[in-house]
Amino acid sequence: MKRKRRIIVCQGCQQEKEYHGKEMCYKCYRKFKWSPKKIICVRCQRERPHQSSGYCNSCYNRLFHYDRVKEYNIRKYHNISLEIHQKITQKCVLCGFSKAVDLHHLDGEHGNNNLSNLVGLCPNHHAMYHKPEWKEEISIKLMEKGYTQ
Predict the structure, then answer these.
(1) 65 lies in a domain?
(2) Are 54 and 45 in contact (CB under 8 A)?
(3) 30, 85: one domain
(4) Does residue 19 lie within any of the structural domains?
(5) Within 10 Å of residue 122's Cβ, how many Cβ atoms?
(6) Structural domain contains residue 8
(7) Based on the structure, what is the number of domains in the chain?
(8) Low pLDDT (below 70) residues in the chain
(9) What whole-number distance in Å separates Cα of residue 1 and Cα of residue 24?
(10) DSSP secondary structure of the chain
(11) Residue 112 sits in which domain range?
(12) What is the pLDDT of residue 94?
């Protein structure tokens, strides 16, 4: 049995549309009257709109989609796999810092993704390499460690 469609003049947009709720069409109801249920997020413990599984939107995306987005971006910008990127950026080859490590191309060509051309540098050493006053010093340290340009 088909459901009978009820046509009304929407209180939001003043157009004749199918009734959804509160004397409004679906679009106006979602815009003006509906609001997502607020929960205490399981991960961040803040009161936020519910996404799924007891998480807020940002925590849900971080837990369930972050790796796929990161893998896509690494493949897009560096044309290497996530596993290779993680192996190279485990720690800075100069100081051993491991909390944040950038991928650096030794020859300066971003199209050359040969493994011998890629090295992990912490943000400080990476920035120093790209500044003229410290480039020579960082280059010498890299050569001492066995990385040629």
Answers:
(1) no
(2) no
(3) no
(4) yes
(5) 21
(6) yes
(7) 2
(8) 1-3
(9) 25
(10) -PPPPPEEE-TTT-SEEE--BTTB-HHHIIIII--PPEEE-TTT--EEEEEETTEEHHHHHHHHTHHHHHHHHHHHHH-S-HHHHHHHTSS-TTT---SS-EEEETTS-TT---GGGEEEE-HHHHHHHTSHHHHHHHHHHHHHTT---
(11) 81-144
(12) 94
At residue 105, the pLDDT reads 92
What pLDDT score does 134 carry? 93
Mean pLDDT for all residues in the chain: 89
Look at residue 6 and tell me if it is in a domain.
yes
pLDDT at 7: 85
Give me the amino acid identity at 35: S
Measured on CA atoms in the order 32, 47, 63, 66, is the torsion positive or negative?
A: positive
Closest CA to 50 of 36, 63, 60: 36
* Amino acid (one-letter) located at 26: Y
